[in-house]
Amino acid sequence: MKRLKYLLWLVVVFVLILLGYGVVCYVQLLENSFEASISPIDPVYRMANHPVCLPDSMVSERERELFYIAKVYGLIEYKSTSYKENYACELLYPILQEVVEENVSIKSFNDKLQQALSTELARIGGETNADSLFAISEEGWVRESSDLTQESKMLLGRLAHAYTQIDKTSASFATDNKPDGLIRRRDSYRDLDWRNPLNRLIGLFDFYSFVYYFCPNRQLFEQPWDLSLQQAIPMFLHVENEVDYHKAIRYITARLNDSHASHSTAMDTLLFGERRAGFRMRSLSGRWFVYSKRSANYPTNVKIGDEVLSVNSIPIKHLSDSLALFVSASNASTRDKFLNNAILSTPQESFVLKIRRNKDTLEVKEKSEHLDYFNSLKLEEEGKMKPQWLNDSVAYWHLASAKQDNVESFYRQVCNAQYIILDLRCYPYPSSFWELSKCFIPQTENFSYIVYPDSQRPGEFKYIAGPHHLGSENYYKGNVILIVDNQTESFSEYLCMMLQKNPKAITVGTSSSGANGNVHLYEFPGGVMTFLTGLGVLDSNYSPMNGAGVKIDVPVLWNSRCSLSSADPYLSKAIELSLCAEL
Q1: Which among 150, 262, 338, 576 is least surrounded, fewest beta carbons within 10 Å?
Q2: pLDDT per residue over 34-47, tens digit each?
Q3: Separation between Cα atoms, residue 205 and residue 233, nearest integer Å
């Protein structure tokens, strides 16, 4: 009997080991294969082609060669089938080293490049004696280059074509869930020593290539991504210290025109410091005015409407112009927000400000606090927020207070109002999404589409419908006024898009952040982090939301009169609309 029990236990343990092994294998499958995350039935999203922008003869020979190494690096790293980590880096590193450390002529560069390309073609079994095919639009740079010889072009064409003929069910980088997950590398270059210029350039080349093949919002960039690479190469090559290195990284990420990217910039304490002033500014015709406090109860020596002339004796225009190079934003309104953060960031415990108040010029000393402190004050204030009645027919609800477990009870407090003003100038709790849909929109099949990169075919994108079966028959039938501004970002913008499905909804405000979709983390050599938006978001008419922000029905024009007033112009406009409708 004991022997039988012993055998049974052995069987149980063996089965558990097999199950554990199966789980490990499945996790590895998800890590190394995209079959679980890429749907073959999802339609292809037709994105505008990358504009070809090649370096001309005014660019130095070395920098032109580095540009082409970057382009070839991306092609091999992200379109090859090698499972070896950092394969393209290993293949091209000898060429990179020679170009950086010696004067390599264009002819010699082409000879070395052809050797590397022939090696890669031999590895994948690609034909080397067939005519080149240049049918791939994103590789148009090969055809138009005046620096690459005909032989280099032919080898590149064959290589690009050979990659398209391979049935790819996996690649040398991993991905999570398709609609709400990330494309990410199996490995990163974070542990490379950034002090080595070769490592810095590899980090730049990889970031450039990653964005080139996987950014779903690349068509929204203000300038060609190739031009941004050209501008960044000398910055990464000629770094003299750690501050220069961080500036180079923030410069290239600012060219993404992506508000998500500026959050990592704002946390870069080496450049900007970890402390902030207790107020916010806004620009008007090149002048900067105080327009709000970071916390209502935080003491400041400035007043709403004060014009800030200088910070620590540096003229405000000089600060804003120089820092704008390193601030990424999806639109002008959001650039103001992040420029304000950059100008008013410091490692010191105080600022000295020169301000203009009415007709007087004053010098004031202003305390600074760690950003965590202001965030704690904000959370404390939001925790006390509840819906409130502004008059007999108008209710106001700041959605920073909305959570899954309180939406229904809060809604019951205001559901009899003729107008409900929903304030989206915040980042609401994501758990509130479905509950708010039941309260405020009719039954809706779909309000958005998500664009995601096809990781099996870098450079191609697919799209899928957003959340299905939202809303309720018992939704609020009154009038809804949505308030938005540049604090309305990411999930808040997505929530706004959903709430706009209420047939009586009116959106009031200024441009939202224009950065809707998940946030992808990317690390440069030395572990310097940056963020970028990993998904594209379209409305139900297939129009991109990223960049422009949510649709606004009634703009709030911020002017000098607003800058001198302590009243909230957004809320005032919403109340005005409700009063006008009653007359």
Answers
A1: 150
A2: 222 456 788 888 88
A3: 9
